[in-house]
Design brief:
Layout: E1 3-9, E2 15-25, E3 29-34, E4 43-48, E5 51-63, E6 66-73
């Protein structure tokens, strides 16, 4: 499992950062494991391999002391789409 860093704003608008692990990745999204819950529909950025991946939390479930999050990637606009 690769190391990641998740960045988001909590319900009070405070910027948050949490390190975690990448569980899986696909063209449409990714799964991460972190120690803090993030609410469903929250926007966040994942730093992985020097790449920033933005997306939206679609599910968050607690597993022991960790939380598994499913994240749907934001659409990436290609130069041809502009």
């Amino acid at each position: 499992m690769a190391q990641i860093e998740a960045r988001w704003e909590d319900d009070a608008g405070i910027s948050r950062i949490c390190r975690g692990k990448l569980e899986d990745v696909s063209a449409g999204g990714l799964g991460i494991r972190i120690t803090e819950p993030i609410r469903v529909c929250a926007k966040l950025v994942i730093l992985w391999r020097q790449e920033n991946i933005s997306g939206t939390v679609v599910h968050c479930r607690q597993i022991g002391q960790n939380h598994m999050l499913g994240i749907e990637r934001d659409a990436v606009q290609k130069p041809d789409d502009a």
